[in-house]
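Form 7-S
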Amino acid sequence: MMVAIHAWRSADAIERFKAQCPACPVVLQLSGTDIYDYLQSDPGPTLRSMELADRLVGLNDLAGKRVPKRLRKRLRIIFQSAVPPAQARHPVNRAVTVAVIGHLRDVKDPLRAAEAARLLPADSRIRIEQVGHAYTPQWADRARAEEKANPRYRWRDDVPAASVRKLLARSAAMVISSVSEGGANVVSEAAVAGVPVLASRMDGNVGLLGSDYPGYFPVGATRALARLLERLEREPAFAKRLAKAIARRAPLFRPAREVAAWRRLLGELVQN
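Output:
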């Protein structure tokens, strides 16, 4: 069998595999770029991969909305899991650290949290700490310029996974401001670490956190995110509400659950 990741990028490989072994099953994990971009901008290779696949895997509960109706019976939703942290959370008291975790590229809208922090009251203790590689020199320049102009913002560039876990452990919240996502693993990591998420309201986030999650802001809405940051800092009841909501989602991202879902999927193919 073949397990392929990213319909558009794997199109040629899937076609070659099926030509060489027509009876062998293909499982295709759909990326966010597949279902929220290429299905509209370059549908040919993406649809061809999806039609050749025996099973499709989506990473969020709303992925099926973008899969053609004729192919939805092949779709299985499997959340990406994360290992619970070895150390307990210990948010720093002198500042309210808010993490932004992810590479700096257009689809992530990576400086939205930094821009929102500029709008906070003068006495706010919110500090935005961002980790992730800049995909282009332009994004690196923008992050460095933001650091110089914004005392509430720090960019640490790419860091090891252990440093990301330490950042989450001392963070009061994490912001994911993406324009589009298939189902970001960093949301899983924050949830199992017990870190509330402030998320842009789009399918990839709502499909992980649930429609009733209280920490959404409209995509690109700087002022709305600033209001959430201020409430996080100044309203203990709101912070508790976020913490309870993320705790309810955390069991969905346990490794055992993900393994069991893949076992069921592979079992279906064996039976066929």
